[in-house]
């Protein structure tokens, strides 16, 4: 006969079948409220703190959580927080400049009142009311769209260290969204310890809208987290996806793969199990959990980048470099085993005389010189001007890519034909579009566009294509096939005379004052634009009225610029 187990007798109660569950989080966790997660992200997104300061915020949470697993022998002992710990988490060990910048960032966070790190204490802001920012309306609007905004999130400590080491902006935004939507602690009403639900549903459009990233960025970030193994996609039917969105499972036992460089990789695994069970590692057995400034623990981890120049490289950015490139300077190394530099004319290396802009090859000698790639959008000059510029030049050659080849659509399509012959490109319409989009990518981002473009098509780096690159490539191909459209009053899509846009509106004296206040406020973190205007005798009503006028003028200026671009 089956009998119900008595409370506290160790009997196992049947769990709810809703969602994926786990009994424990490997490496322990840190309880951070949803309010705090959203607050920190909003401050970073709105420009009130830098990316490194945002990483320092999670490093402070990790330091505070470490001290919870130590029981000092002396009751009067106090925890001691050192810069050595922070440097190991964030990066920059061995660089005096990096340590100075980290100290300045800690002071900036203290002025903002988000987190204050002192020698023996770390204090976190529990509410947005404690933050020294004048206008918090954007935060409250974002928090209103976040579900379960009053709960605590059990953030795994391994992920805390990863966030302190640094991800890209899109990946960090998606991690925050998944922690809020997919990681819960459920208390067992029968008196047990409870368990953790580790799956959740969300849509990438929701993440992009409320966390301020692009839709493509959210898609790429999810692919990156799946590649790292932190989330695992769960099968869903089409009607479930239409109603609730994607469903992903968070791996609470996750740790960064061994081939990833990060500041926390070495010391993240050695002592976390002992600390969770009340023990102490070799470098943290001092009274009160004091970690020494120097010792065996200092040599265990590597910084995210060897040259800590303001920001350290995130784990997902280092993989995008060429295998033949310099990881420090992120420049392509000239030449491969084929005997000549890929995508660069051999004539660029003959002699030291500087060539005139537009006539030499793209691969100029001399570091720090940018090619004449300009902005996006290709060459918009009349066809006669483009033909005159290409006269006297040799035909396009896929082995000798010039700057003019990337600007001129005719020459670029000829390069595509040659690339299809030797197997570097696909002859389909999709392959042609990818080819043009990669050319836009190389023109806008490369110091040596020709070399970069050849490397992109040779390595098939279509994942680097952004939505802007695709739009510009589609526009160039459309204008090449159908001609440039001319906007008219009767037919906005083409035909007739050109309609000139209205004159661009000018700023009034009051608007110039508000713009100056906004510019000064951006240069001084923690000081609002209205605070500066109030020092000049302005009141809130006058300031908001002028700022509303500026929003309308910005809209008119945007329309004016867009109309000019279409002419």
Characterise the protein shown here.
This protein is mainly alpha-helical and 567 residues long. It has three domains: 21-293, no CATH class; 327-482, no CATH class; 509-566, no CATH class. The protein is built from 21 helices and ten strands. The chain has helices spanning 34-45, 51-66, 83-90, 96-112, 137-144, 157-165, 169-182, 204-211, 215-228, 238-244, 265-270, 272-276, 383-390, 403-407, 409-421, 429-445, 449-458, 467-482, 509-523, 529-535, 540-566, and strands spanning 21-22, 29-33, 115-117, 122-124, 152-156, 184-186, 195-197, 199-202, 231-233, 246-250. Strands 1-7-6 form a three-stranded antiparallel beta sheet. Strands 8-10-9 form a three-stranded antiparallel beta sheet. Strands 2-5 form a two-stranded antiparallel ribbon. Helix 19 (509-523) packs across helix 20. The longest helix has 27 residues, at 540-566. Mean pLDDT is 74; it is low at 1-13, 261-376 and 495-499.
Determine the structural class based on helices, strands and strand pairing: mainly alpha
Count of separate structural domains: 3
Which percent range fits the helix content?
40-55%
Task: Please list the strands of the largest sheet in the order they lie side by side.
Answer: 1-7-6
Distance between the termini: 86 Å
Number of helices: 21
Residue-averaged pLDDT: 74
Shape: globular
Assembly form of the protein: single chain
Characterize the biggest β-sheet. 3 strands, antiparallel
SS elements, strand count: 10
Spatial extent as radius of gyration: 28 Å
Q: Which regions have little confidence, pLDDT < 50, spanning 5+ residues?
A: 1-13, 261-376, 495-499
Approximately what portion of the residues adopt beta-strand conformation?
5-15%
